[in-house]
Amino acid sequence: MSRCVLGFFVMCCLAFFVHANEVSLPKNNADISEVIHFLKKNSINSPKIVISYIEDNKLTQKALSHEEKVKVLSYYAQANQFIGEIEKANALLAEAFTIISNGSVSADTQAIALFVRAVISSETTQYTQALNDLNAVIALYPKDSNNKNIGKAYQTLADTYLLINDYKNTFDALYKSQFVFKAMKDQTMLAVSYGRLGSVYRSIGDFDKALENMLKSLKALEGTQAERRVAITYNNTAIIYKDLGRYDEAINLHKRSLNLKEKIGYQRGMVYSYNNLGETYRLKGDKVQAQRYLDEAQALAVKLNNTMLLGSTYLYRARIAKQNNQLEQALTHLDNAMTIYQKRNSKARISEAWVEYGDIYFAQGDFVKAENSYQHAIELSQAVQKNVVTFAAYEGLVNALKQQQNYQKALNALIVYQGLKSALFDKQSQQRLESLIVENQLFNAQQKLKLAQQESKLKQAELERVETHRNWSAFTLVVIFIISWLIYRKVQQHNRIKVEIKARKALEESERRLNLALWGSGDTLWDWDLTSGEITRENLPTHSRFSSNASGLDAKALKEFVHPDDYSSLTDAFDAHIRNKTPFFEASYRVLDKQGEWCWLLDRGKVVDTDEHGKALRITGTQRDITKLKQQEVALLELNSELEQRVAQRTTELATMNQQLMHTIEKLEVAQEYIIEAEKHAALGSMVAGLAHEINTPLGTAITAVSHLKMQTVTTESQFKSKTLSSQAFESFLNDVNNSSELIESGVGKAGELVERFKLLAGKNSAQKPTVINLATLLLESFKVALNTLQRDPETANLTISGDAELVSFAATLAQVFNILVENALLHADVPYVEITCELSKVGSGAEINFYDNGKNIQVGDEKRIFEPFYTRKRQRGYAGLGLHIAYNNVTQDLNGSIECYRDASKGLGYKIKLPSIES
Q1: What is the C-alpha to C-alpha distance for residues 309 and 271, in angstroms, rounded to an integer?
Q2: 784: pLDDT strictly greater than 80
Q3: How far apart are alpha carbons 814 and 782 in whole angstroms?
Q4: DSSP conformational letter for 916
Q5: Which of 336, 407, 412, 815 is the one with CA 20 to 30 A from 123?
Q6: Rounded mean pLDDT of 566-595?
């Protein structure tokens, strides 16, 4: 969050010091002082114009004084830094500091270069360099002098300390800047300090204090001509109202800021106001107004040719699109925003964009992408300490993991999230405590200063009075001296009483604020004087055994209260901090309360006073009861252990069930193979019966003809031997011989053909060799065999074959496949007239067969099950449902092809068979 505040500070303050209504370039014969004023005025608002002007006029190559050259290089670097050219900006500053080290340059000019380098160092996380540069600015001027650059340096020091979470020095630097500007009576810069102090309080979540300081800033600006500063302060105060959820007040101030910016022509600031109004209206729920103001922001940024201002515009548009469930549009806006933020290396804003990505992917159901987006947001937001974004990202991450049923990982993320929230609360409490301590120290210092000033004035008055009456007579002198002494004592007593009353009231007010803060947090404040051993505690819980006042010179004073197992770690942590080995003291330990129960305490403190050798003299800190938190931790550990046991038990059960299932599957496979083999034998028996029926008819005819011929031969032979054979009888015998021979030849030939045909249907690959097969012929033969086998009237079925193709394959196996398909159509079509259609085509060296009939279709979805063993719709009629499974195995295993079932709206149920040629 502190980095976000820095960006907030830098943009506001730079915008205040540098402003351009409409960029007006210097004239060709302009004096160098006028040119430098132009650079100063526009290096932030119009950086590209400044860079172009310097480069077009070759300003850095002109003969300039050391003062002028350093200023030109500094503003040139500032413009490059603002557009993201950090390396070039550093190179220009290096040249400027070379001139400073080699020549005589004024303190004010050196300060310009140091300020620019400090801002760049902070932006690139080189905080030590930034602090050194800002302290160098202060060192340029005499000690205790009041100079505007000193005040600005303290303000920027506060920004940098805030980045490294040094809140004590942050508050100290801001109060010092206030002293400087109060002494200078510079109300405008004093207002800036109040505004920054308000922003610091906003960063630690104390919005009431933040609002109080922002209102002080506005009051300080009353009666000044700093309209632009007023407009910016209106904007910043409105943002705090927005944080407090007071949207109407926020909108009102944003509009006042916008009107003032429009009046003075501050167009770049107007873009910020339009964006802020759009976001505030969105939060209020008025998306129409929100969209209108974002449109205004985009139009103005395009007009100014400054697309770097559009990052927030696109981000807020994405949020509106997400609320409207326009997820693709939201992603487009986010991509545009991310491009701008990455170019400016704005990590805080990038982390916000990753959270929005995660929310959109979550809404789209892509939980893996959502998880990755939230992880990116967590990494970046933690790096820049933007806690609000970190918490939003963790909430999204937990939900995304739950949707993926990754409950263990979700639980771990939830534990981390709760820990971070607790740590942030503790950190903010410590920060608020530090701010109260600094305020109290500041108040005491101010009271001492006022008291010293009053005493000095009184002494001076006394000296003047003595000098005036030196020549009076002794009597008059004595009388006047007595009267003066009495008056002086009275006045002194009266003034002392007034000072004491005022100091007491201020102290009581400070104590009241501190007590309210402690009461709100529930913490106990303790203060330990290590010299006298005096220990005082404020806001103790009712059940605590600790006393409000105690004594002790070291941690042994706590031994009687602390659990024996925790005492060693407590003393080690305390002694390590006292010896300056750790930046602060922190320990968790158990203490016995008044009810005899062990309670957990989180104890934190810090040395606040040391002697000249660094020895600790005083330490102050807070105690918090974390018993419930510890109980929750134990509950989480127990829950985690229970979950692990359940998972292990369930894993064992699943393994056992899996093993049983595997045994069952093995048994089913054996039974399936047995039934398939039985069905194959049954199919073979059916084919043999058909073969016997087919061969019986032609062979019967041949046998009858042979019997008749034998009988006629015996009769003719008898007539011939008895010499009673007439020519007419012999001619009749010859006719019978010819007719019988024709019948015998026809019958035997028919039987031979049938035998050859059935040989094709009975073979196996192990006994077959690949042969060239005419698919149309084999289909027609299979159709005839099926009609005869099923004793089906040829008038009730028809086979239509289109196309022609030959294939090198196993004829018997392919014939069996065709026979199964034809029989399946004839048996299961359930229509009076079965129309079978086959489409043949050549595909490379293989072939493709489309086989379909006009029968009643199977149920929707059963196409994928039709090749499963035992699938049938007529089990009650005695069908086993293995025919198509046998055909599937023959095609895929024996013939190395593929077969699939499909529906055709116009042709009915079909099969597509793809067969390759089989090399011998």
Answers
A1: 7
A2: yes
A3: 10
A4: -
A5: 336
A6: 86
